[in-house]
Design a protein that fits this description.
A 7-stranded mixed beta sheet has the order 1-7-6-2-5-4-3, with helices on one face. A hairpin with a 2-residue loop joins strand 6 and strand 7 (135-143). It has helices at 13-24, 43-53, 89-94, 97-100; strands spanning 3-10, 32-36, 69-72, 78-82, 106-110, 123-132, 135-143. It is of the alpha/beta class and 144 residues long. The radius of gyration is 14 Å and the shape is globular. It has a single domain, classed as Rossmann fold, CATH 3.40.50. Bound molecules: adenosine-5'-triphosphate (ATP) and magnesium ion.
Length: 144
């Protein structure tokens, strides 16, 4: 297994979507995308591009708010998960998220830092950093 890191800079939401759509083309179907970044850094925007890149309907993608898991049909089903309101692995397990990590389908997980060291299989770490009002640094770490 080798690890590969890429760093991109995005200058607009559309660019973040396009970068995510490009990454979608490299997915095999069971990856867990761990999205880490502050409020408004572009996690949901990234998922919208991902769904578009997988041939799904990007208009379905909204912040999950009170629902922890949404699933969008696409080339692979995309499970959009928001851990913001869950604190601790016990809550996350109770919500069924740990079991979902083992299932086929792409899992895109906002606030993945809540998983706190849990050994996530097939993980791709995506860090979004706010540089300015419309600029973001996006780091992608693959283990493959
Ligand atoms: N380069 C960029 N990439 C992504 N979003 C951007 C960029 N520039 C500006 N934005 C804006 O930043 C906001 C990102 O919102 P988004 O819902 O994707 O963030 P989030 O990380 O999911 O936030 P939350 O933690 O609340 O779920 C949007 O309003 C978007 O238009
Ligand atoms: Mg969001």
């Amino acid at each position: 297994m080798r690890s590969e890191t890429q760093v991109w800079e995005s200058d607009a939401p559309e660019t973040t979507e396009r970068l995510a759509a490009e990454l979608a083309g490299r997915l095999e179907g069971s990856e867990n995308l761990l999205l880490i970044g502050e409020l408004g850094s572009g996690k949901t925007t990234f998922v919208r591009g991902l769904v578009r890149g997988l041939g799904g309907d990007p208009a379905l993608v909204a912040s999950p708010t009170f629902v922890i898991v949404h699933v969008y049909p696409a080339r692979f089903p995309v499970y959009h998960i928001d851990l913001y309101r869950l604190h601790g692995l016990a809550d996350i397990q109770q919500a069924g998220v740990l079991d979902l990590l083992e299932e086929p389908g792409i899992k895109a997980i906002e606030w993945a830092e809540r998983l706190d060291g849990y050994p996530v299989p097939s993980a791709i770490l995506i860090r979004l950093e706010v540089l300015g009002p419309t600029t973001r640094r996006i780091g992608v770490e693959w283990e493959r």
